Amino acid sequence: TSQSLGLGHATTLMATFVGQLIWWGPHGRTAIATSDCELYLASLAALSHVGLLIAYHRTASVRSWFGLWITAGLGWYLQPLLFPLALPVLLVYYLSVGAKHDFLTWHIALWFAEVFAVVLNLYWLVDWLDSWWLRAALPSAAGLLEHRTLGTVWNAPLWGDSVDRLLAVVLMLSAAVGLVILNQTQQRPAARLLGMGAGGSLMLALLGIAWEPLGAVGTASLLAPALWFACIPAAHAWMWLTATLWRSSVGRGLLAALVLAVAACFVLLPDRPCTLLDRCRAIEPLEIGLGSERDAVVQTLLQYTTAEARILWEDRPCNRHASRWSALLPRLTKRSYIGGLDPDGFIEHSSISLINQSLDGWPIATGWTDEKLMDYCRRYNVRWIVAWSPAVIQRLEAWKDADKMAEVHDGTTGWLFQVRRTPSFALKGQAELLHADGQSIMLGNVVPEDGEVVLSLHYLAGMRASLDRVQLERAASADDQIGFMRLRLAVPAACVTLTWER
Fold it and tell me: What is the DSSP letter of 187?
């Protein structure tokens, strides 16, 4: 991008260096540790797209047009929510430079590149939009500030530590100076694009910790993209200041004093800026494998449970650094679970889980009687419960129909409980769950009651039964917002296989 603006190799090198410091900052390191890099990679694609927009304005070459199409396509593929947010930036660019191009071909080619990038991703964007309903009502953001004052915003975890906060302030102030310089040196489109990219992302990041609707969709993560957009004008300001001071002997003296002052900051400040460089040399190793405690949990579940019923797994609040290893439990144990996959409760199907000491949205310690707990276990065919928090363990200990089976450990001590009930996946009629995976569900000995069998399995539109005489439909439930599967058949069936569109 810097090269597209004609800012020189020194500015490009400086911007790249600062960008690497940001990448190895707290947000980038967390994204790597949690395999959540798509927003940051899409932001780099958007930054490259900005540079290519300037290059296309200047030369309108096939190379710049092809680059526009590739970077836009990558941006949509990596994070489909980012490029729609950047639409105002694109419109400002077009209104700024479009009138300067008389050839209709220039306008058609520009919008063809932007639209065709969306068309290129339509094959999966359609499915992504179709599955959007799975997302539950958005919960509060983990980093949302309870009190919105300048002090709480300044001290928010969003910034990282004091060194990261200092870097962000210096970078943004320098970028403001660089944008003024660009604007005064006939680089107005570049100044507007980079300014809106940096300022807009920073505003969304700040609103993400102050306003719940935006915080719930994770706009606080846009701080790193905001700083990346600020890198180029900031580096331009530094190089311009260096070149200006170098032209006179007095200026060289001031430049030397400035360099010494910066070096002194690296050495004398309590939180040394050297911390930024240390991150680039060494990082915390990624966690590999389950470890002895978690492996023991898996062995305990294999020993005390079977596949004839579900295991209710208590999800605990955790930060983004925490391992989400419990999502592997169905593969490791060949068991069915409620919970373990979505501890933040973002998707609709997680609404029935035991999250943060609340079961199906109600505090388990005070909002559930013994009868309601047993009805829940019958409705979702739960026979075992893995409890971690003291409040949940205490409530289950007081439940006469739950027995302690084994102690488990995962950073804290928990217990495996067994519920005294006969397991069955059939809520009405009879049916045995023979096999279930991502391709199909196989049922055996299906015996209807009053011409139907209701299963403790959530209904999904597009499901179909292997036998033509079996009609599959949704069974509404007052206790479940999604609904269960209902099979309508006149006579018993030895085997019924359920499949769905993939």
Answer: -
What DSSP state is assigned to residue 425? S
Angle at the Cα of 34 from the Cα atoms of 33 and 36, rounded to 5 degrees: 115
pLDDT number for residue 140:
41
Packing angle, helices 122-130 and 104-120, rounded to 10: 50
Tell me how far the alpha carbon of residue 214 is from its chain's centroid: 13
pLDDT of residue 268: 61
Residues 298 and 333: their CA atoms lie apart, in Å, by 7
Q: Are 37 and 31 in contact (CB under 8 A)?
A: yes
Is the CB of residue 387 less than 8 Å from the CB of residue 396?
A: yes
Cβ neighbours of 109 (radius 10 Å): 17
Q: Tokens 């990596």: give the residue.
A: 78
How far, in Å, are 112, 146, 159, 223 from residue 215 at the CA level? 34, 12, 15, 13
Alpha carbons 407 and 227: distance in angstroms, whole number: 47
> Reduced to 3 states, what is the DSSP secondary structure of residue 386?
strand
Tokens coding 422: 């006969």
**Cβ 329 vs Cβ 335: under 8 Å:** yes
Please, how many CA atoms are within 13 Å of residue 441, restricted to the half-sphere of its CB? Answer: 21
Inter-residue contact 415 to 406 (CB < 8 Å): yes
- Give the C-alpha separation, 393 to 127, whole Å: 41
Higher model confidence: residue 4 or residue 104? Answer: 104
**Both tokens assigned to 295:** 């492996």
Q: pLDDT (tens digit, 9 = 90+) per residue, 216-241?
A: 667 788 888 899 999 999 999 999 88
Total Cβ atoms within 10 A of residue 212: 14
How crowded is residue 191: how many other Cβ atoms within 10 Å of its Cβ?
Answer: 22
Strands 358-359 and 402-409: unpaired
Give the type of residue at 94: Y
In this structure, the dihedral spanned by the alpha carbons of residues 368, 352, 297 and 373, taken in order and rounded to 10 degrees, is 30
Question: Model's pTM, two decimal places?
Answer: 0.71
Cα angle vertex 255, ends 250, 256, to 5°?
100
Contact (CB, 8 A) for 208 and 222:
yes
Residue 470 CB coordination number (10 Å) = 20
With 0-12 CB in 10 A as exposed, 13-18 as middle and 19+ as buried, what is 86?
buried
Helix boundaries (H) for 34-86: 38-58, 62-78, 82-85
Q: What is the pLDDT of residues 452-502, one digit of tens each?
A: 999 999 998 888 998 889 999 999 888 888 899 999 999 999 999 999 876
The whole-angstrom separation of Cα 116 and Cα 122 is: 10
